[in-house]
Amino acid sequence: MTNLRSRAPRGLRDVQAALPLYVQLREALRAEIEERGLQPGDRLPTEVELEDRYGVSRSTIRQAVGDLQTEGLVRRVQGRGTFVAAPKIQHVPVLTSFTELLRSQGYRPAHRLLDSAVVDAPADVCHDLEVEDGTPCRYLERLLVADGEPIGVSRTWLPLPVLGDHDRRITRGALEGRSLYELLGEADLVPHRGVETIQPALAAADDAAQLGCALNTALLQIRRCTWTADDEPLEWTRLAFVPGRYEYRVELRHAGSSEGGDG
Fold first, then answer.
1. What pTM, to 2 d.p., does this model score?
2. Residue 253 in domain
3. What is the pLDDT of residue 3?
């Protein structure tokens, strides 16, 4: 079987023949996307074209493309082919709104209000916020949208004892499609500290319907609790995102290193 180096078209990165064939093909396709400047939505060669170009089996092609799909670099569309995927939105561990996060990365954010009601806080919300069982909360459920495409669902509980008369402003603003943190700031209720928990979840029926994914699709779930500067419980939010469009990013440093040091 011919290795990829001898069959690779001009302009692709040279790869080491010692690597497994699917790895060589994966890196050759990655190089083609980068060096040709392919944009989200551009179509990749078909399996037949790749088989002819590189002289590898269909199983090798599917494994290579599958790896790129797992990374979020490409997406497969049944019956249409494989396309360059839109870059993932990077969730960063700072107290900022969904709107501010997306704008900082060049996206056009929006949200659609799915539900708004006064409810008794569930047991897990009361536990995490350290409030009494059954504390009344303003419940907001919103569909999160980036560049017109639904990417996540947000479910938020805001304790009414903290909101007070500002509850009307929050609900009116939510209906107008404004950032929740912007509305809280106008009410002098600014998140001062927060705790986030990241874990996988499976799409329930309502998640699947709202996000346009299959039932039990793996989702990235982020649970956030925030408090005011006076340490009053402010917000409990559960965010669920489709992993192909969203990733959690954390910058780490060695415990013994310091800014400007030699590591």
1. 0.68
2. no
3. 42
